[in-house]
Design goal:
Layout lengths: L1 H64 L6 H28 L6 H19 L5 H4 L3
Helix pairs in contact: 1-2, 1-3, 2-3
């Protein structure tokens, strides 16, 4: 009886070793893949986010300073100008990335810039509560 239990334990241990090592290999491979992806593209996403935050905050500042809120046409023109400036800056960044062979995703940069611009605009407009960002 003890011999059968010992054989069963040895067989179970030996059968689980390759599965465990294969699972660890797969986990480590995926971890390296994600970390290399993040390292490759994080710079472009952060820079496009910074561009979006800057343009969104600037357009809100200009709207408040020159009272664009009273005219729908001026609001529309302001957002058209902001869109063009943001996309031109991101396009120039992409040209620099190409020149220095930095990896980036073209569509992701424009999308992140657009989202960051709106979030900055809404944050400056007090539509997004500051309590969300400042945990006081």
């Amino acid at each position: 009886m003890n011999m059968r239990a010992m054989m069963f334990t040895v067989a179970f241990f030996l059968s689980s070793v390759p599965i465990t090592s294969m699972a660890e290999y797969k986990f480590n491979t995926q971890k390296k893949l994600y970390s290399s992806y993040a390292a490759s593209y994080i710079l472009s996403l952060v820079l496009s986010g910074c561009v979006g935050v800057t343009t969104g905050s600037t357009i809100r500042y200009v709207e408040r300073k020159y009272d664009f809120e009273s005219s729908t046409l001026l609001l529309f023109l302001g957002w058209m100008v902001e869109y063009e400036i943001r996309n031109n800056i991101i396009t120039y960044l992409q040209k620099d990335f190409d020149m220095y062979k930095v990896k980036y995703k073209k569509e992701s940069m424009f999308t992140i810039g657009w989202i960051a611009s709106w979030l900055a605009y809404l944050y400056k407009n007090d539509i997004i509560s500051r309590d969300i960002f400042l945990h006081n």
